[in-house]
Design goal:
2 copies of one chain form a homodimer.
Chain A (H helix, E strand, L loop, with lengths): L2 H11 L16 H9 L12 H17 L6 E5 L2 H16 L5 E5 L5 H9 L2 E5 L9 H7 L4 E7 L11 H11 L3 E4 L23 E5 L13 E5 L2 H5 L3 E2 L7 E2 L9 H38 L12 E5 L3 H10 L5 E3 L4 E5 L6 H14 L1
Parallel strand pairs in A: 2-3, 2-4, 4-5, 5-6
Antiparallel strand pairs in A: 1-7, 6-7, 8-9, 10-12, 11-12
Amino acid sequence: MDVLEELRKFREMDIPYSRVLSSMCTVPLEIAVKAHQMFINTNLGDPGIFPGTLELERKLIKMLGDLLHCETPCGYICSGGTEANIQGIRSARNIKAKKEPNIVIPKTAHFSFEKICDILRIEVRRADVDEAYRVDVSEVESLIDENTVSIVGIAGTTELGQIDPIVELSKLAEEKDIPLHVDAAFGGLVIPFMDNPYPFDFVNEGVMSITIDPHKMGMATIPAGGIIFRNEKFLKALEVETPYLTTKMQFTLTGTRPGTGVASAYAVLKSLGFSGMREIVKMCLKNTKILTEEMTQLGFEPVIEPVMNVVAFKTERAEKIREELYRRRWVISAIRNLSAIRFVIMPHVTEEVIKNFISEFRKVI
Amino acid sequence: MDVLEELRKFREMDIPYSRVLSSMCTVPLEIAVKAHQMFINTNLGDPGIFPGTLELERKLIKMLGDLLHCETPCGYICSGGTEANIQGIRSARNIKAKKEPNIVIPKTAHFSFEKICDILRIEVRRADVDEAYRVDVSEVESLIDENTVSIVGIAGTTELGQIDPIVELSKLAEEKDIPLHVDAAFGGLVIPFMDNPYPFDFVNEGVMSITIDPHKMGMATIPAGGIIFRNEKFLKALEVETPYLTTKMQFTLTGTRPGTGVASAYAVLKSLGFSGMREIVKMCLKNTKILTEEMTQLGFEPVIEPVMNVVAFKTERAEKIREELYRRRWVISAIRNLSAIRFVIMPHVTEEVIKNFISEFRKVI
């Protein structure tokens, strides 16, 4: 059998996105795929060879900085939210230079923070959340001590799409002189395009770094994560010397690094513009409402009123429902610690997808 | 201006591979690009959605395991050599569980080990090398203490393409009961295809993990790094719980993870086969010889007789030569601590490229 034919057979075993209501990734825009192909041979790990791609990345970082209200944005396009969060925390850890560092994060933070703390050898302290699943700022304060090197707030939690009180966290961070890292991997390209957006970004003086992933709601190709620092100081805390490359220092976590994410993220943001992004976000929020209404009619109550295009519904049978749907090649999430089923209403989750899903869902329950 | 037109202008500023003699990456094979495109929407970070891509990865890992003489290979395709090395060392660190861990690496190890030790909070001890730039095993031994969690050997050093005495390192590792990690990011897909290959792999009982990057000599698309462990125990030491994904545990460093590297690496190895790879390696070694002869005629002496398709030549003017060539849009490396200029003779460095380069090089010196 021809190799490409063989690959096609494997690819056909995958579940198409039109049946996936649980992923924070989506089908990239057509222009993103075209841009990706144009940059498929690029390697930003050796930027002297790719000065054009590097320049494009600078433009994209500036664009993201504008979006996040930062005049001196520093950062890069990385493998994804985990690398971005590692780098945000690592920078703070290196600057603070404590012997037994800890960070304070919300209980609702992404599970990768467990991984990050193992990798960076940092103690993780999890602060409780209020009834709306926003972190309790007074509890964050009580967990801080002289070894705390970073506070983390989430703008768009993975499980519920909730936004932590970043304004208050920032005040606390300033008061305690501890860098605040905002994980906006998902929300970073949603919130700015909503009506009356919550001020989650560098507009707050205590925010020193933000994770914002173009390969999630930015509809870029994978991999395209993003880490943006308030200024150069935080990037410099990550640098190591390179003895033979075209540049003398390297601040990225990885070495070899594709330029495809830079090109595809830039292509999407530039071609859609902020108004185009607003339309997409509006559509996702409308579809979230449609799904929520359908589910409510079927007797399922949302855990919280959806804040963005993520919604979860209470049910004791979460895992069973998920499994049965999976057997029928439909993918949703079960949140084990909340006894809930969860949906992410990405651009590929259209009204038609929702209609098809609900019709299957009725059979399952 | 049209966005794609704008992107094209940036891309044209990049230096084409036909003028790059310093990179361990290359132009991917055509079949790799085709495979990449077929898998462009895949995300192995949520493998339940992509069971076909996951199955393909298992086949590829098995294929790499066969190549590396391991019957129970465990691992995954990652962002590149740095992630692979992080994971190899992190696994050993977690298994050994020392309060103040250290690792012993050759002085010739890739600069990313500095980064890795910062990230993982591990002390790095650098052992000296012999006159052929192979690590001195007795010095490695003298640097080991009760807090040593890993020994590192290199199969294909970045600067000279040298191979450390892995056989002796493995014996030492077994004796001391310390996992040996082999960084074969480059050499892993060169050495097995050479005549009388040096036994650098799992054939040595002390070797517990190997870095092997398909996006280097595997001619796959970026990103496609590889980390292979001897058995499941080492992979399990990396796991964290995932509260809502289609799988319950995650051992990768990143979360979202493209399947493109899996598909492109598989496509290359499957279509070329071991015999096709042997032909490619043979050609690169022949071209290395041609370049070395040309350079010798121009009065440049190699630092060591080339072991594989990497070669460096002594010169006090290394940085000046590099800069002047770069001004003319030719890229080579200057190795600062060796006072040498360095070349990597990848598949794109054809006889014609060498001819063109030498003609330009004559003008520069």
